[in-house]
Amino acid sequence: MPLTLSLVATSLTLAAPVRLDRVDLLSEDKGTFLNYDLPLASAYAPIAGGRFIEQVKVVLALPVSGLYAGVSIASQSVSFEGPLWRAQDGRGLFWVGSVHTRLLMPYGAHAGVAWRFGLMRLGVGASLSTEATWSRPAWSEWRVLPVLAVGIGPNVAPGM
Fold first, then answer.
1. DSSP conformation letters of 3-62
2. CB 107 within 8 A of CB 128
3. Residue 57's CB: how many other CB atoms inside 10 A?
4. Is residue 25 within 8 Å of residue 150, measured between CB atoms?
5. What's this model's pTM, rounded to 2 decimal places?
6. Residue range 79-106: mean pLDDT, rounded
7. For the chain: N or C, fewer Cβ within 10 A?
8. Is 9 a residue whose pLDDT tops 50?
C-alpha cells in the first residue's frame, strides 16, 4: 500500500501542473448573454447582471498542450486550441473547439478563432446548443448563436 501511494504521489509531482490561464468575462459557451440578455440590460438590469455573473468563467490550462477546462456557475467546458499563426512569444491566432456541459450533461459545442495578445484573449465563433438537462435529456431542438469571448489573465499560449 505505501508503495502504491508513493507511485501515485510521484506521478502527480512529475505531471505538468494545472494552471490558471484566464478568466473569461464574456464566455464562448452558449452565447445567450451576449445575444439575449445584454440587449435587454437597460430594462431588466438585475436579471442581466445575474446572467452576466453566471457566465463569467475561470479557465485552467491542463497538462496536455492546448487543452483547457473552464467552469462557470452556468456551465463547464473542455476546449482545445491549435495554432493558426504564432508569434515569437507564443501568442497569436488560434483555432478553438470546445464541448459544453451543464452539471456534466453535454448540451453543446463551440467552434471559432481566438487572438491571444498581452494579458488579453479575444475570441469569435459560433455556439451550437440545446436546452437538454438531466431531468429532460432531449436534444431535439438546437440553436446556433454567434459568440464573442473576452478573457484576461496570464494567458500563456498553448505549447509554451
1. HHHHHHHHHHHHSPPPEEEEEEEE-SS--HIIIIIGGGTTTSHHHHHHHHHHH-EEEEE-
2. no
3. 23
4. yes
5. 0.84
6. 93
7. N
8. no
Burial of 136 (0-12, 13-18, 19+ CB in 10 A): exposed
> What is the rounded average pLDDT of the residues 33-55?
90
The type of residue at 141 is E
Burial of 54 (0-12, 13-18, 19+ CB in 10 A): middle
Amino acid (one-letter) located at 20: L
- Residue 81's CB is within 10 A of a number of other CB atoms, namely 24
Backbone φ, ψ for residue 92 (5° rounding): 155, -145
**End-to-end Cα, the chain, rounded Å:** 37
- Do the beta carbons of residue 157 and residue 92 sit within 8 Å? yes
Instruction: Tell me the pLDDT band of 34, cut-offs 50, 70 and 90.
Output: confident
Using only the alpha carbons of the chain, give its radius of gyration.
18
